[in-house]
TrEMBL record:
Organism for this UniProt entry: Hemiselmis tepida
Alphabetized Gene3D superfamilies for the sequence: Tetratricopeptide repeat domain (1.25.40.10)
The protein, known as: MalT-like TPR region domain-containing protein
UniProt xrefs under InterPro entries: TPR-like_helical_dom_sf, TPR_rpt
Pfam families: TPR_10 (PF13374)
SUPFAM superfamilies xrefs: TPR-like
Entry-linked PANTHER family: RAPSYN-RELATED, TETRATRICOPEPTIDE REPEAT PROTEIN 28
Coiled-coil residue spans: none
Amino acid sequence: GGDAVEGQVIEEQAMGRLWDAAGADLEELGRSLSGCVSARDAPTEADTLNRMGVAFCERGDSQRGISHLSRGVSSARLCPNRRVLLTCLSSLGCAHARCGGRGEAIEAFEEAAQVAQRLSDVPAEAHCLRRAALAHASHGDITAGLVVIGDALDLFSAAGDAYGEAACLFTAGVMKYELGSTAEGVADVEASLRARRRLRDKVGIAECLNRLGLALVDIGYHLQALDYLERALALCHEVGDLMGQAHALRLLAYLHFAQVDGDRKLSLELFRKSLSLCRRNRDVLGQAMCHEG
């Protein structure tokens, strides 16, 4: 139902969009790791373990992935260059967030933010805080998440990072909506939409349209919601955002199912399309949401 979709939007953000892994040759990285361990080259060892951990997680082996990422953090602690530690902590936090270790994710992101602050890297600190806010929210503490996202928004504003500001406005809007501040939440998402249109950020625009469409479903404005969700799907298709497409298809499926005279056959077809994309993305949560729908 609507509450089920509503309650999982933040969790989907935390476990899906946080993750941005690149492909890697694990055999080649394994050989590189053996060499740098023998040479006691901590920076290269940390970087290699980090890349291997990301690759394992990308392939669905989260246990080995997190093990390698944790070892990468340990090696990074031995490096004079604190940016190595910042990178490894951020990767470990993303992996925990995606795989359900919310407490561990918060811990990693908060330490990463502290490292960034000591480096006087304001944008990096803001990114870490935003991720920590998402992890707080997905852990069930949306109030704490809202406080942290406010801190991240202030830092992005100070750094003049318009993309970061827009992302934080969106996240803050979703959190406020979840806490029952409907008007404030919608206003923040609309502000994010305006900013993302100025930036011509099509993925961000689609994300906002999806969220506003869901809000319209909640108040029974199904035709307007259909327009928003179909526009979001078209944008995701245009830029090749498979996760965004899966999300939009799932919301459209729910919309058709929720209508009194809805097309149940079309709803089922849309859920199946979303499920297929989730499988391609190795998005376990998305698959579960399709089955629940």
